[in-house]
Amino acid sequence: MSTFLELGLKEPITKALTDLGYEKPTVIQEKAIPQIISSTEDLKAFAQTGTGKTAAFSLPILELLDASNSNVQAIILSPTRELAVQIGNNIKDFCKYLKDVRVTTVYGGSSMEDQIRSLKRGSQIVVGTPGRTVDLINRRALKLGNIQWLVLDEADEMLNMGFKDELDKVLEATPETKQTLLFSATFPREVESIAKNYMTNPVEITSGQKNKGADSVSHEYYSVTERTRYPALKRIADLNPNIYAIIFCRTRRETQEVADNLIKDGYNADSLHGDLSQAQRDSVMGKFRKKTIQILVATDVAARGLDVSELTHVINHKLPDQIENYTHRSGRTGRAGNKGISIVLVNGKEKGKLRPIEKIIQKKFIQTKVPSGKEICQNQLMNLIDKVQAIEVNETQINEFLPSIYEKLKDLDREKLIQKFVSLEFNTMLAYYENAKDLNDLSSRNNSRARSVNENMTRFFINIGRKDSLNPAKLIGLINDQNIGDKIEIGAIDILDTFSFFELDKNFEDKALEAFSSNQPDFDGRSVNIEVTKKERTGGGRRGGSKKPFGKKDGGFGRRRRSSESSSSRGRRRSDRPDRSERNFGGDRRSSGKFGRKRKEN
Ligand code: AMP
User: Fold this and answer.
1) In what order do the strands lie in the sheet containing 269-272?
2) Is the overall model pTM greater than 0.90, yes or no?
3) Is residue 572 part of a domain?
4) Domain range enclosing 262
């Protein structure tokens, strides 16, 4: 194994790497750095995520660029803003001891003027998302006519996101003589077509097997139904008090719903998707990196390529549409020598998607049971005991209180004292999970009819149904027309043949009854009336919408947030489409309408 110096990097660069704790090159760095330094041939490099791709392409560029020339010499394109920012920051760290080297990162959703100003000051390296890069080329603020290097990072994803035209435009603005470096974690057909169209006889290097998942990640799947998907997710989080995870969803809407539910249920969670403003995205990412947020619920695009160290879990709330994306998702964990777990929640239909993924990652999914209440309580208790063992006692501060405490507890022996202290912490949790049902029993008797109940909602009966051509949209419209109140939340809707049920925020129960009775609406010729129903409970278990039972004592991640600080209070918009956040930012938004949002049942 060589050192960075032996790979041909100069001392100011290796010094910065030492500061960053990079002791020796990773496999991809060992292969790519000397290749790029010694040859102007194009390069196609396939590396698993988290293996040091960024340093692999940026260190040789830093080695070779001419710091005395302030023209743009390298353009690095990345599919998402977060990834562009991350790459830009990494490069700034790498060139800490290089004089006169400047890096500018350009991406949508952030001030174009600031970016133009930075470019005018002169930057040898520009990192950008395709859309903003083209904008700046069109405004003649970014000149790529003399570049030496074009780096396409996560090129397959740029194509997936529909950036083909932008890539073509950037290519047109660059000289024939440049060296193109394509780095990608996966190897679908689209990457090959980029290589064919944009590169000349590229040298190919590989770190590990193409598309293969990282060895440090184990893969588990949990069988769920649509009813148990969310409760199972909560149990997984409860089983792991120190969880630090990304939950991946397919669409912005699903992402926001899962995040809203988790926040409402007391989890330290937030969402990241393309309907958020750049400032919101930056703020969420900042908190997640600092571990102020413990669970990030994200779309593929928003979380693409993010390097967050020490993630314990990646959870696939739903599998991605393109199975190659599973490698990207699971590669978020098990980075930089850590172990990670990638979890998939699958219903009966989705199970068929596991086999093709196993072929790609060349690993088997381990079927894992949704934890029982007892297992969760045991884990939480042992976590507490571990913390008690590890806690440092600040004698100077507590000494003065101890005599009176000893006096009060003098009649309790050691066993009794431990029992009481454990009960104080855990009575609520034990009660919460007492009689919790087995979520692994997926029979319809247990899961399809049983209704989880949210105590914040009132369930109404309404005397119209499918035979009256009622559907959820029409029902929402009908409720909306009664002017019950602004921003009232609609919960679960069940349309049956001749009647239906819906849930409303319980604070609006009286107003809803009054509005329907005084307006006397009719629907398709039938006069409509509503009644409050008695709610069904899940078989012996807890209420679906109840709060997380562990109070603020769980985890080690600081305080949990109330929903008033949460994502749901920031006026978000949502979409059911897969997230294409960089591309569609500003467009493709669906207002949630007068009623705020329609909640999914837990
Ligand atoms: P990347 O694949 O570029 O996103 O890098 C994944 C993670 O590995 C980042 O946190 C890097 O800072 C870290 N890393 C990259 N190269 C090295 C190295 N040679 N030694 C230690 N850590 C590294």
Assistant:
1) 269-272, 295-299, 245-249, 313-316, 340-346, 217-223, 366-367
2) no
3) no
4) 217-371
